[in-house]
């Protein structure tokens, strides 16, 4: 390990600091702050001391942290979540190592009553990495709130058996979970989506509830809001109208944003036991800081989408991140913005990197320290 690597905080320390900063900026209260360390300890297990994804190599750029934050916004409420890839406690973090670390965390969440693993266990033989080209092994996500970890999810790697098996694995997983008819529905009504599955992602909610979702992701290749609406309308007219409206509202260029090059939006199909024969809902994710890169671009759109009180809290976060954004980079810190299409306008989810939060935390914590020193003189 290089001296530079030793000087970096471990990933657990980084996540705790990030959660506490988000809690402070978003006004989540002292209980949220107090719970951050325990929440991260539960989720990161015995690898949180790491500050690189693998053995450090001189001259190589530091890889991004293996976690990100998401903010689920509904009414006046903010639910802060962590999405992450578990790493090996030491040595290379292969897909197999992430799988084993993820299993240990899931067992601990089950012991605490946070996760119900019957459905996940039924899929273990499908998604356990068994090909050298498996990419992730396993990813996990959970809410990290004042009352502890909640609403856990597992994300399985559809590269587990190597490239070219995504449809096979997703179809078999859905059939085992009782959603075979829904998979058949998607293949009939969204053949383009099935042909453009987003690799490496098959997700399960781990709640013991009829609302627990099974999800898989597809790439949006449509070049206009009207084309996207026609695709989503297979689920319902409401979903189609919501898809077009979301693009128009969240992109500076409206529908024309879909004609641009680069990262494409994502359409996620989700199934629950409420509707075993077809998807229960769909979620549309847009690359927010590509479609609304400036500070005013994103704040104007969030102002129209959020309640006034919640908007003011999120606006503070945007302002901090805009001030500390990299040169030539977007001021908008949110790389994705997502919404459900059937339950449209019930919630909005914003995704931001560990690096964006850490830059804001470092800068504004230092400013606060200087201000306290000046006051005490």
Which residue ranges are poorly predicted, with pLDDT under 50 across at least 5 consecutive positions? Answer: 1-7, 369-375
What string gives the helices and strands in order?
A: HHHEEHHHEEHHHEEHHEEHHHEEH
Q: Which outline best applies?
A: globular
Strand count, sense and closure of the main sheet? 10 strands, antiparallel, barrel
Q: Whole-Å distance between the termini?
A: 41 Å
Helix/strand structural class: alpha+beta
Q: Count every helix, treating DSSP H or I runs of 4 or more residues as helices.
A: 15
Radius of gyration: 21 Å
The percentage of residues in β strands lies in 15-25%
Report the strand count: 10
Strand order in space, largest sheet: 1-2-3-4-5-6-7-8-9-10
User: What is the mean pLDDT?
Assistant: 92
Instruction: State the helicity in percent bands.
Output: 40-55%
